Amino acid sequence: MIDRRCARAAVVTLVCALACSWAAAPGGAATSSVVVDATIPTVTDVTATGCLPGVAGRTDFGVVIPGSSAVTTSDCRLVLGTNAPSSQLLVTQSDGLLAPMFQPARGPLDALFDPGGAEGAGKARTDINGGADQVRYVEIQPADGKIVAGGTSSTDFSVARYMPDGSLDATFSPGGTDGNGRLRVPGPGGENAYGMGLQSDGKILLSGMYSGATDDAIVMRVTTGGVLDNTFGVGGADGDGIVTLTHAGSNEQAYAIRQMRDGRIAVAGLGWTTPSDMFLAVLDQDGNLDPTFSPGGADGNGVQTVDFAAGTDFAYTMDIAADGDFLLAGSTGSDIAVARLDSTGAYDPLFAPGGADGDGRLTFAVAGSQAARSIREFSNGDIVVTGFDDLASNDEGKVIRISSTGVLVPTFATGGADGDGVQTVDFTGGDDWLRAVREQADGKIVATGISNTGTGDDYAMVRLLADGSFDPTFGNAGAGGIGRARVDLGFAESGYGLAIADDGSLVMGGSSGGDYGVARMSSDTISNYAGTWAAGSNTFGACLVDVSAGTAQWNEMGVGNCSTSTAAAWNPIPADTTGGIADVVTFSGAQSGVTVDLRFGMRTATSQAPGAYIAPITFTFVSP
């Protein structure tokens, strides 16, 4: 307990490690909240709620849509417990300046990505070894923004690494037979790479298959410098750095690979039994099957097979949920199949309980024959699956949203042709497939794949709002409607991989005319707050929405509650700490458990570009 007779103040600082991302129109309320607790002196208790979870250290103040409003706001709640009178709540920027304000990718290619390339700015093509090359997966290294693309070159596994500007990274596999920035790894036979993942230490995991007497699943690991990792799978039949997963008499293919949070490696695919079942294997960090996963199972320690009633089952994709569960998706017969297994390899009894295939397994059919190609758990626990249907006329892409308990989300794409929970994505032309899917920081859904124009194939990308409707701020002409974009590198393209950079730009990868093809959609950077918005003005600020107890007032503005109208009073938040700290609210008299609702916002002209405006904010509570 702090002695209130002490002359010095007890100062508690809580950095808002939240990203309040709003898919609704400006001024919309949060649909869920995350609580951040702080360890502070006993006389004071601070909790922040009312913001959607996101990237730590950032607070997103909404999405501005031109013409819809001159003010964009978002609300956060602070719960303050104090017995001391004359306490103050202060607000400032935690890094001295607002971060750059990013306009989420809208469809135009990024002019700063490979600007001198033969295919034009925003697009890069890479020949690995003169044969047929195809990217199957892309990732962005979090430490430096470099782009890692993995796939197949002729009959070998291959990796290319690009600098953020689209040029090949000369420090990756320098002096290799195919040139700097490119690595080709011959395996024991004819190989195809289907999956890739980045380890936390930057090493690259690749998975796929090779053809021998039967098809066998194969896993490789590559160092950050671009050579085969000889500490992985040491002493194996195929040499150091390579691990083969096989089962007598069956054909195995490893379509997905991920590092688990404890450092182990999960591999998913098809085969292992006859007829084919999905399989999930867990390896230790050295590449050995982990005997603690699915111990004593019919398929041996370290391996679990997933069987659906239809007979032939394929797992084309995998994700690891926040609670450590494994999510597998693909097909069974002619239907889409999704399975959820716990960390031991057992079916999750809370996922799709009582279904025709048993607990933990979900099967559903839309028009035609279907397969899922990508699965991701989203920030609210929902599961989003992308794939396609194989129709007699034209194939169509599918985006499906499932709850954490295995039920189609009825508020997603409500009233669609395939029923609630399923959005059909059709581009103008011929067949369309969706493969990779990701969630943006603002909750929007981005998926990429292939679209036939009627005369050839292009990369295809779609962006949906969280409710499954097409995003009106995204797309380019001729793709078949709002929310859809095509990218043509001048050849026949097939899109597989998708990654989202920290600035919101969208990177896709696949094949282009028999070469690696990588393209990036722009995320326009709007100037820093300090350069665009007048420091200390009412352009960017905070105001008091409500206080649950006691008397509160604005020291500087002398106003009470605020609203979203342009006439509302704003307490300016300084653009840097040298300009002082905004004294948001003061309390008179002894208080306890005071709840303060604050509204943060930015005044914008109706002509302002759409964008997510990001600002790291620090709350400081001073209790005498």
Structural overview:
This protein is mainly beta and 624 residues long. 1% of the residues lie in helices and 43% in strands. It has 1 helix and 43 strands. The strands form 11 sheets. It has a 6-stranded antiparallel beta sheet, with no helix packed on it. A hairpin with a 5-residue loop joins strand 29 (432-439) and strand 30 (445-452). The longest helix is centred in the C-terminal third of the chain and has 4 residues, at 529-532. The protein is globular, with a radius of gyration of 26 Å. The model is unreliable at 1-60, 62-72 and 529-537 (pLDDT under 50).
SSE topology:
Elements: E1 10-15, E2 36-37, E3 44-49, E4 60-64, E5 71-82, E6 88-93, E7 101-102, E8 123-126, E9 133-140, E10 147-153, E11 156-162, E12 182-185, E13 190-198, E14 204-211, E15 215-222, E16 242-245, E17 253-259, E18 265-271, E19 277-283, E20 303-306, E21 313-320, E22 326-332, E23 335-341, E24 361-364, E25 369-377, E26 383-390, E27 396-402, E28 422-425, E29 432-439, E30 445-452, E31 457-464, E32 484-487, E33 493-500, E34 506-512, E35 515-521, E36 525-526, H1 529-532, E37 540-547, E38 551-553, E39 571-572, E40 582-588, E41 594-603, E42 611-614, E43 617-623
In short:
This protein is mainly beta and 624 residues long. The chain has 1 helix and 43 strands. Strands 2-3-5-41-37-39 form a 6-stranded antiparallel β-sheet, with no helix packed on it. The chain has a 5-stranded antiparallel β-sheet with strand order 1-43-6-40-38, with no helix packed on it. A 4-stranded antiparallel β-sheet has the order 8-35-34-33, with no helix packed on it.
